[in-house]
Amino acid sequence: MTPPFAERLLSWHAVHGRHDLPWQRDRSPYRVWVSEIMLQQTQVATVIGYFERFMQRLPTVQALAEAPLDEVLHLWSGLGYYARARNLHRAARLLVDVHGSEFPDTVDAVASLPGIGRSTAGAILALSRDHRAPILDGNVKRVLARHRRIAGWPEAPATLRALWALADELTPATHVADYTQAIMDLGATLCTRAKPACARCPVADDCGARAHGEQASLPTPRPRKALPVRSTRFLVLAREDGALLLERRPPSGIWGGLWGFPELDASDDTAARCAALGLELVAPPRELTRLTHTFTHFQLEIAPLSARVRERGQRLMDSDTLLWYKPAAPAAVGLAKPVQDLIRAHRASQETAP
User: Fold this and answer.
1) Does residue 242 share a domain with residue 207?
2) Mean of pLDDT over the chain
3) Which of 177, 211, 245 is the last residue before a domain boundary?
4) What band does 141 get if pLDDT is binned at 50, 70 and 90?
5) pLDDT attached to residue 318
6) Do 197 and 286 reside in the same domain of the chain?
7) 260 closest CA partner among 269, 250, 272
8) Which residue range(s) make up the domain with 87?
9) Residue 122 in 3-state DSSP?
10) Are 38 and 138 part of one and the same domain?
11) Which residues neighbour 262 within 8 Å (Cβ) at sequence distance 6 or greater?
């Protein structure tokens, strides 16, 4: 008789699972929470360095709550999906102000915090406190959809209900932390999107997808839809000393709260935009290589314009909305990846200029 699903998974994990990830050391709800948020849409290998730097600077929920948002976004720069960092900051303040710096002990209460859904709440409580709470992240959806041969896009309501019911059914009453880590590890290391290692899978014997040769078609892919394209122009304005003018973006929307280059609509005049910022052009702007940045729901085409400027009359001072950013001595502020790329390119061009 085939042993229960959880029993096979736990036996496999004891030997082959991941046991040395940074957030598995000194495990606490705070460390698990930060790691789970960072791991959303991001590979483990990428997250490790970010997590260690984040914990070195903000080791407790109190430290995170007290930190300026700029510092949190700076520590997050390059990870993308910056709403995660803003929600992390908001949730930390709620944990301190409302919950006495402690995580609640129910999934519903944890899931009520900004940026924490049902699966993340379950992972926090299961991994840090061994509470019986099923999870359903992307890796787990893939494992369950294949094992029980559940067709349908996993985010479709009916499919999602079926997957949650199965996740709850299979989660054991004991050893929940180990089981939770095991099923995530199985999806991350063996039951991968492409070329799953079925021969080494501990639950392959009764896997429906394997029996029917459907590993490549399950889970059912998201219905394909062409991403709309938006466009903008960045003004890369450089002062004589090499400082670049950055402008804080609105708190909501794409790259909310991050610092970026002033933007131009298609009809905007460069000289007029500079004048509105208290600057004047030293020479006509020149076009830089265009960039394309892909978001979940659209693509953004960026046409950067580079120009040297000087301040008109009174010197333009750093403020809550404007900042002279010195690439050689960078301020600790949050920057979106295209902005980081343009800053690096500008610095490289200055260093190689005759």
Assistant:
1) no
2) 93
3) 211
4) very high
5) 66
6) no
7) 250
8) 5-211
9) helix
10) yes
11) 234, 235, 237, 245, 247, 273, 277
Does one domain contain both 183 and 262? no
Name the active-site residue from 36, 52, 240, 263: 36
- Strands 229-238 and 299-311 come out as parallel
Residue 218 lies in a domain: no
For 249-299, how does the pLDDT look when each residue is reduced to its tens digit (9 = 90+)? 998 888 999 999 999 887 788 898 888 888 999 988 999 999 999 988 899
Tell me, yes or no, if 301 is annotated catalytic.
no
For the segment 226-247, the average pLDDT, to the nearest whole number, is 93
The span from the CA of 250 to the CA of 243, in Å, is 22
* Contact criterion met (CB below 8 Å) for 136 and 118: yes
CB 284 within 8 A of CB 307: yes
Q: What is the dihedral of CA 307, 308, 312, 314, to 10 degrees?
A: 120
Predicted local confidence at residue 83, as pLDDT: 92
- The answer to whether residue 222 is domain-embedded is no
Contact, 171 vs 6, CB < 8 A? Answer: yes
Quote the pLDDT of residue 315: 67
Number of structural domains in the chain: 2
Res. 350: pLDDT tops 90: no
What phi-psi label fits residue 308: left (phi over 0), alpha (psi between -120 and 50 degrees) or beta? beta
Clarify whether residues 50 and 16 are in a common domain: yes
Q: Are residues 238 and 138 part of one domain? A: no
How would you classify residue 324: left for phi > 0, otherwise alpha for psi between -120 and 50, otherwise beta?
beta
Last residue of a domain, one of 211, 244, 260: 211
pTM for the model: 0.85
Residue 23: pLDDT band with limits 50, 70, 90: very high
Clarify whether residues 283 and 171 are in a common domain: no
Residue 95 is assigned to a structural domain of this protein = yes
Cα first-last separation, the chain: 76
Query: Which residue, chain included where needed, has tokens 């610095």?
Result: 347
